[in-house]
Design goal:
Layout: E1 2-3, E2 14-16, E3 19-21, E4 35-39, H1 42-56, E5 72-76, E6 79-85, E7 91-97, E8 102-105, E9 110-113, H2 118-125, E10 133-137, E11 143-144, E12 158-159, H3 160-174, E13 177-183, H4 184-193, E14 202-208, E15 211-215, E16 223-226, E17 243-248, E18 260-265, E19 269-275, H5 290-293, H6 298-308, H7 317-324, H8 328-339, E20 344-347, E21 352-355, H9 364-367, H10 370-380, E22 384-387, E23 390-395, E24 398-404, E25 410-412, H11 415-420, H12 428-443
Antiparallel strand pairs: 1-12, 2-3, 4-8, 4-10, 5-6, 5-9, 6-7, 7-19, 10-11, 13-17, 14-15, 14-16, 17-18, 18-19, 20-21, 22-23, 23-24, 24-25
Helix pairs in contact: 3-8, 6-8, 7-8, 10-12
């Protein structure tokens, strides 16, 4: 199901007299221009933009004809970010351009979706070593030294899965840390050895000297590599990269498949691909935001934290907590809530959140999540009870038994828990028990 959003443009994107003018919408004022200047490494920048666009038009799981989806671009203080999800929502791509990557000014701030259609991809592909790449995000232009006739902007709806993907991917990314950093030459050799095409296996990458080696089992220090063919979008930027950094959550022997982040760094920009734990899993169904959304005070905290966001390149949780007069945990939960409306993302290289604004309302992800809605209905119906240390939840004619785990979270006797074992977030019964337990603790 798609979320139909209305975008208003001053005119179509065009290519005339060597200048490519890319129209945008959104931001703090009607049709703003929030950046204009030259990208200092034009070939690398063109390759990075093409990679983000390629992910947006690719469906890695059960491939079909190329999608026609628009990457998202954000300008904030001294940073430009281009983001997209794959058609299957299992790969998240982002190109971060730092001050070293451009010669110009971020004169305002804002977020918009940008059309990268076939003529624009062809124009970017022809950017040569001596060709300047001038970019102006706004109603005026994105200039490159090429001639290819007019380029027309295509308005498309942003899928509802993208909103849920934005909501989930920043929570999963925040749980990762750098596990390996290898030079570009070794990274190129490693990527060349990977299976290509529609590979659906789940492998594990382990640091080995200056490179990585693949194993069939997880272990300490390993990073999950699910569907190695999904890293193909990195190859276009390899020749310009200095290092490849790989991020993942802490693992042990027997760990289930997990999210991983693969990031090429050129010095002036970083291209990252975040892979879902398995090739058939999209980020939109991971359920990582549910526990944070289940608390009663998170909406009020999110309103307060939202008022304090100021388009800084990175969002410092400790500073926000001091400004808001809230604990760091409550601020993180508020950021999760804001993430459900696309208001924040997470940069693994900076280890910090960043601010963006998408055309979604803050309650959209909660309304669209059947597990959260079902849990609230169970609580309102008085379906949660206690039998000693075990909670019982009556759902229709069934009674489910929910237990708190020593390490946190809950187990449940329902089919969802039996199938996923907590790997895709809590079931509605566990969420309902969590809501009741939290309310009881607050009232105690």
């Amino acid at each position: 199901m798609n979320a139909i959003q209305t975008y208003r443009y001053l005119g179509p994107s065009t290519l005339r007299d060597g200048d490519l003018a890319l129209q945008t919408s959104g931001g703090p004022t009607a049709n703003p221009r929030f950046f204009t200047g030259f990208l200092t490494a034009p070939q690398a920048a063109a390759a990075g933009l093409l990679a983000v666009a390629e992910v947006a038009r690719t469906r890695y799981h059960q491939p079909v004809s190329p999608a026609s989806l628009d990457p998202v671009v954000t300008g904030s203080r001294d940073r430009l970010r281009f983001e997209s999800f794959s058609g299957c929502c299992g790969v998240y791509a982002r190109l971060d351009v730092s001050p070293a990557g451009f010669d110009g000014d971020v004169v305002a701030h804002g977020t918009t979706n940008v059309d990268v259609n076939a003529p624009l991809r062809e124009a970017l592909a022809r950017v040569g070593g001596l060709d300047p790449l001038h970019l102006s995000v706004g109603p005026d232009d994105l200039t490159v030294s090429t001639l290819d006739g007019p380029v027309v902007e295509r308005k498309v709806p942003l899928p509802a899965r993208w909103l849920r993907g934005f909501a989930e991917v920043h929570v999963l990314a925040a749980a990762t840390a750098v596990r390996a950093e290898i030079p570009a030459a070794e990274a190129a050799a490693f990527l060349r050895r990977l299976p290509r095409g529609g590979d659906r296996s789940v492998l594990w990458a382990v640091p080995a000297g200056r490179s990585l080696r693949l194993t069939s089992r997880p272990g300490p220090g390993a990073v999950c590599l699910a569907g190695a063919g999904r890293l193909v979008a990195l190859r276009g930027l390899l020749r310009y990269a200095r290092t490849l950094r790989v991020y993942g959550p802490p693992l042990s022997a027997g760990s289930p498949p997990a999210t991983s982040v693969w990031e090429l760094d050129t010095g002036g920009m970083r291209l990252s691909l975040t892979l879902s734990p398995e090739p058939h899993r999209g980020f939109s169904g991971e359920g990582g935001v549910l526990a944070a959304l289940a608390t009663d005070d998170v909406a009020d905290d999110a309103d307060l934290v939202s008022a304090l966001l100021s388009w800084d390149p990175t969002v410092d949780v400790a500073t926000l907590a001091a400004q808001a007069g809230r604990s760091a945990d409550r601020v993180r939960a508020a950021l999760v809530q804001l993430g459900t409306a696309g208001r924040v993302g997470f940069d693994v290289a900076e280890g910090a959140y960043f601010h963006r604004v998408l055309p979604y309302d803050a309650g959209r992800a909660e309304r669209d999540n059947p597990r959260l809605a079902g849990a609230r209905a169970l609580v309102e119906a008085g379906a949660v009870g206690r039998d000693g240390s075990v909670a019982t939840v009556r759902h229709g004619t069934e009674v489910y038994r929910v237990r708190r785990r020593p390490e946190g979270g809950y187990t449940c006797s329902c089919l969802w828990w039996a199938r996923h074992r907590g790997e895709r977030g809590p079931c509605r019964h566990a969420l309902a028990v969590s809501m009741v337990d939290t309310a009881a603790a607050v009232g105690a």
